[in-house]
Amino acid sequence: MGSMRWRIAQAIEIRWWQNYLRKKSPTDYLHWKQDYWLTFLNQLKISRPTGLRILDAGCGPAGIFTVLSGNKVIALDPLLNQYEEKLPHFSKEAYPWVEFRKNTLEHFTGSEKFDLIFCLNVINHVDRWELAIKNLLDQVEAGGTLVLSTDVHRFQFLKRLFRWLPGDILHPQQHDQEDYLSVLRQPGWNWESPIIFKQERIFSYVVFVGKKQLQ
Length: 215
Hints:
single chain, alpha/beta, 8-stranded mixed beta sheet, 6 helices, about 25% strand, globular
């Protein structure tokens, strides 16, 4: 079921999407979002992949799966049914290269392995973040890559305050860069220096890129 804080965040999340997309043309929004993802890959110096098995973990209604044609993609999100029901901007049929699965990161386990996993602006939305990261690390194929991005707190005082008070109701997880690195830095992984994409008053938007060593 998840914690109460997480369940509240999920209920608000779909309403947030409805409000955010209410006046946006589906076609224009999707074109804009696809350009955003291609720019994101370019900034990370990641070539647009082809022929890979890829997981878009916490895909949302217009995740990076939208620009990954030519790959075998699984797109995972616990709100997929609600996106399909309530958002005209989302249609599974538009992405024949994608297999959509309704699930949480914490419960997505098994023998499947991926050459590349994206978990973008998602990990602070989950209920049990350390378990979610462990599952992601486990499901990267040897020699594969994990790209994880999230907002991180810049100041310890505000991190503690946001954990205590629901000042950021959409995000049950409130952590700083070192919190994430402490879980990501597992044996058998090589991590690049964190990339700060954007810095604001309270949060920095940071991207972590790691490669799993060949066994």
